[in-house]
């Protein structure tokens, strides 16, 4: 909310003298007086923010200017602050049309009679503050007509002074903007519902992946009861997927800032190092991830899972800000000197900082200001929940989220947390690598199946089951890697790919590119969200789709059926050169 210049500054501005000196005004000069609808379409330069008259009084009504005031469709009113309670002393006919009152019902009353129980008290306080300080003000306020019907009023109020600077009158103009406000609110509601739909679709996809791991491994456990070790491994995998499903629900609770955090002492350096492999996979090969970690970083008391999710959300934003690729740096540091603590408006103490720096498109000041608002997004598609979740987690952890950005200059996002005390030991976490299976059995397998899925557990579940059935299996996490493997190893009998995968290529695009090179290649698709499927075309009509969560027995049957449909090669005994 902004108001016009204060009285002293206003009266020191150059005058715009009119009517041979009978009246003058101080031009707005582009200064905004508030947040109301602007009929000019811009802040304005030449219109008056306040005026000054040499002959007070409302008796002279025989000139062209009075006729213009009565002919305009813009409702206008004048009040007299020198009388008790600042009553209305003049209204034009458009004001009466707008409010549906008669003139005798309006004159002598304070403007507050237009207010009602649903009028925002904060807006009323803004008007009163401007009146007390003799400033111009513009607001959107909910007012009431004579019959009790509400309307949204774009209200402008400005002071009128005499030659000595004494306040004589208040002038106001109104505009009914009810239709615009309703349209805006409907649009915002539609945006929120669309964002909720996108969020639901994304969660449904992730949950179906986890359910696939759970149901598939339990099915394998049932069929492997004679092999205690295999049953144990399958059940353990199902339990791990169940735990991940529980963590997934925390994303929604994090957005609502109502999640139950489980903070413990952790070192941000250790967390970044152990999480770095996952980050590299998520960012893709176009993004160059650099780590700049301060040795001896003190520990913080944080929920490790939510810290990982927050870091991942920020890095995904950095990746999306650089569609052509680039460098992203994750850095840590310490704030403990008085000047830096004051510069960040922090309470005295020591703080650990983790920041993500990109050299992407950057954000305008308006976007930076709204970046953590729920459902605000500049992406298409996008939910606008990523930074809102991060902000909620950081606040619940007694930290501070800061965003520095400018168009074309990139973005730096800092998460600042109070330290927990003495440094926690650092360590290098190790995660299981996703390697190709080149065992003797795989090499001698009769048929080769390529499994493509960005989810490691889903990918390994399908691959493990297919290997037990005697297939040679190649696994990869992206469409780009799958095409490289096709070029490198050539002989693939079936492509089994997830449809929804992060990055530049989804499963349908992969299938089309693969069939351009191998027209007779059978393709089996999998998805947890059927609405993501485009309308069937000639290329996709011949592809079978498994809906997650599927039974591994159904996968085996679809693989067998798809391989039978393949056009046989001309080489004898099914032999192919693997090259």
Mean pLDDT level = 76
SS content category: alpha/beta
The major beta sheet can be summarized as: 8 strands, mixed
Low-confidence stretches: 254-259, 380-384, 422-445, 567-579
- The DSSP helix count reads 18
Helix share of residues?
25-40%
Strand content: 15-25%
From the N-terminal CA to the C-terminal CA, the straight-line distance is: 71 Å
Global geometry: elongated
Computed CA radius of gyration, to the nearest angstrom = 34 Å
Description:
With 579 residues, the chain is an alpha/beta fold. It is built from 18 helices and 20 strands. It has helices at 7-11, 64-71, 93-99, 103-106, 121-132, 178-223, 228-256, 268-283, 304-320, 338-343, 365-370, 386-396, 440-443, 456-468, 479-489, 507-517, 538-541, 552-565, and strands at 16-18, 23-27, 48-53, 76-79, 88-91, 137-144, 150-161, 167-173, 264-266, 287-292, 300-302, 326-335, 351-358, 400-406, 410-418, 448-452, 472-476, 494-498, 523-527, 544-547. Strands 1, 2, 3, 4, 5, 6, 7 and 8 form an 8-stranded mixed sheet that branches. Strands 10-12-13-15-14 form a 5-stranded mixed sheet, covered by helices on one side. Strand 19 (523-527), helix 17 (538-541) and strand 20 form a beta-alpha-beta unit. It starts with 6 loop residues before the first helix and ends in a 14-residue tail after the last helix. Mean pLDDT is 76; it is low at 254-259, 380-384, 422-445 and 567-579.
């Amino acid at each position: 909310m902004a108001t016009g210049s204060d009285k002293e500054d206003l009266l020191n501005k150059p005058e715009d003298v009119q009517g041979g000196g009978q009246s003058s005004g101080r031009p707005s000069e582009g200064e905004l007086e508030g947040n109301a609808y602007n009929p000019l379409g811009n802040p304005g330069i030449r219109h008056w923010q306040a005026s000054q008259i040499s002959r007070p009084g409302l008796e002279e009504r025989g000139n062209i200017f009075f006729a213009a005031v009565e002919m305009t469709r813009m409702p206008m009113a004048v009040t007299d602050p020198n009388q008790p309670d600042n009553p209305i002393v003049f209204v034009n006919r458009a004001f009466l049309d707008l409010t549906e009152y008669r003139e005798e019902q309006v004159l002598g009353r304070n403007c507050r009679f237009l207010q009602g129980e649903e009028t925002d008290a904060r807006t009323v306080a803004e008007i009163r503050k401007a009146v007390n300080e003799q400033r111009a003000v513009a607001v959107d306020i909910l007012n009431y007509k004579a019959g009790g019907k509400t309307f949204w009023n774009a209200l402008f109020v400005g002071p009128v002074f005499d030659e000595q600077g004494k306040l004589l009158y208040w002038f106001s103009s109104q505009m009914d903007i009810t239709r615009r406000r309703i349209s805006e609110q409907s649009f915002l509601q539609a945006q929120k519902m669309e964002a909720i739909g996108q969020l639901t679709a994304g969660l449904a996809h992730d949950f179906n992946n986890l359910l696939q791991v759970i149901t598939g491994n339990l099915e394998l456990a049932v069929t492997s009861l004679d092999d205690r070790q295999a049953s144990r491994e399958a059940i353990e995998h199902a339990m791990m997927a169940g735990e991940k499903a529980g963590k997934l629900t925390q994303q929604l609770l994090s957005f609502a800032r109502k999640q139950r955090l489980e903070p413990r002492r952790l070192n941000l350096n250790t967390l970044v190092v152990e999480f770095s492999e996952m980050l590299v996979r998520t960012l893709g090969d176009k993004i160059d991830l650099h780590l700049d970690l301060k040795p001896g970083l003190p520990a913080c008391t944080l929920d490790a899972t939510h810290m990982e999710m927050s870091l991942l959300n920020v890095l995904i934003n950095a990746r999306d800000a650089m569609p052509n690729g680039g460098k992203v740096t994750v850095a840590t540091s310490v704030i403990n000197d008085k000047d830096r603590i004051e510069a960040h408006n922090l309470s005295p103490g020591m703080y650990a900082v983790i920041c993500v720096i990109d050299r992407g498109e950057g954000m305008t000041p308006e976007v930076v200001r709204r970046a953590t608002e729920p459902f605000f997004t500049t992406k298409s598609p996008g939910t606008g929940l990523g930074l809102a979740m991060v902000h909620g987690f950081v606040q619940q952890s007694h930290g501070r989220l800061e965003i520095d950005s400018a168009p074309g200059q990139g973005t730096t996002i800092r998460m600042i947390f109070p330290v927990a005390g003495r440094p926690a030991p650092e360590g290098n976490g190790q995660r299981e690598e996703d390697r190709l299976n080149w065992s003797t059995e795989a090499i001698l397998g009769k048929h080769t199946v390529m499994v493509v899925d960005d989810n490691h557990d889903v990918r390994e579940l399908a691959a493990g089951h297919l290997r037990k059935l005697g297939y040679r299996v190649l696994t990869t996490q992206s469409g780009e890697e799958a095409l490289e493997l096709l070029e490198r190893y050539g002989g693939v009998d079936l492509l089994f790919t997830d449809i929804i995968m992060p990055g530049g290529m989804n499963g349908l695009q992969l299938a089309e590119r693969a069939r351009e090179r191998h027209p007779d290649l059978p393709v089996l698709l999998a998805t947890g969200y059927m609405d993501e499927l485009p309308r069937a075309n000639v290329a996709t009509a011949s592809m079978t789709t498994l809906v997650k969560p599927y039974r591994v027995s159904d996968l085996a049957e679809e693989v067998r059926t798809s391989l039978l449909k393949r056009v046989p090669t001309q080489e004898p005994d099914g032999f192919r050169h693997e090259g």
